[in-house]
Amino acid sequence: MFSSTRSPSKWLYLIVPLALYGGGVYCALRYGTDWTETQTWAVILTGVILIWYTWETMLLRRIAYVQRELQLRPFIVFRREANRYLAENIGNAAALNIRFENIKFEAPGTKLEILFSRALPLLKPGASLEVPIEVKINGQSTDPAFAAHLDPTYAIQDIEVRIHFSNLEGKSYSLVEIVAPQALTIKGFRGEPSL
After folding, report:
1. Which sign does the torsion angle of CA 20, 52, 193, 128 carry?
2. Domain assignments of the chain as residue spans, ordered by start
3. 46/39 Cα distance (integer angstroms)
4. Residue 109: what pLDDT?
5. What is the largest CA-CA distance in the chain?
6. Taking a C-beta distance cutoff of 8 angstroms, is the pair 85, 147 a contact?
7. Where does the pLDDT of residue 67 fall: very low under 50, low under 70, confident under 90, or very high at 90 and above?
8. Residue 85 backbone phi and psi in degrees, to 5
9. For burial by CB atoms within 10 Å, which of 7, 82, 96, 123 has the most?
10. How many whole angstroms separate alpha carbon 87 and alpha carbon 96?
């Protein structure tokens, strides 16, 4: 099932620099005629290895930062459950100031607006909160049942639901969910940590 053998490329990162260093020291001792020259070459090779080691340590630090960011960020999804619309945090950290962009779409003679009236202040990991919505048809408030287009079961066209939120450190994230007939997909997520 799982292989306990290690990849040879992992060992190359250790063996190649050690072989170069050892070969350089051997050549300096074997072919160097002057002790000062031998010491100079040994110091130069030590410096090269130190620079390589510093570079690798810097890369490890960056990778650790990215892993920390990925593990400790909130991830908000929007869904419908029992005639209620919910924001659910499926991430590993609390989300602050969850905001939804208003949705507008038009058909001949009809303009439907789904308005998200307020931001949700806090959503703990694994928790969900009801999202208050207001529906307007041609500028007149109407029954929220007309927001059923936000449920993949009743959707008749693709609708983008844009969600904005931040983590406890104030870093902002944005998410786009596409509600389509019989499908709900995540189109994009902004706020990815980069190397």
Report:
1. positive
2. 8-71, 76-190
3. 10
4. 83
5. 95
6. yes
7. confident
8. -105, 130
9. 123
10. 12
- The vertex-153 CA angle with 113 and 121, nearest 5°, equals 55
Location of structure tokens 């390589």? 52
Cα(152)–Cα(184) distance, integer angstroms: 6
How does strand 133-137 pair with strand 140-142? antiparallel
CA dist 193 and 179 (Å) reads: 26
Instruction: Encode pLDDT of 35-51 as tens digits.
Output: 787 788 778 888 888 88
CB 163 within 8 A of CB 100: yes
pLDDT at position 195 is 43
CA 42 to CA 23: how far, in whole Å?
A: 11
Q: Does the pLDDT of residue 88 top 90, yes or no?
A: yes
- Residue 69 neighbours by CB under 8 Å, 6+ apart: 193
User: Tens of pLDDT along 158-172?
Assistant: 888 999 999 888 888
Return the exposure string of 56-86: e unless at least 16 CB atoms fall within 10 Å of the residue's CB, then b.
eeeeeeeeeeeeebeeebbbbbbbbeeeebe
Q: How many CB atoms lie within 10 A of CB 12?
A: 11
Two tokens, residue 88: 């659910």
Q: Are 26 and 39 a contacting pair, CB within 8 Å?
A: no
The tens digit of pLDDT for each residue in 129-183 reads 999 888 888 888 888 777 877 878 777 788 889 999 998 888 889 988 888 888 8
Is residue 110 within 8 Å of 138, Cβ to Cβ?
A: yes
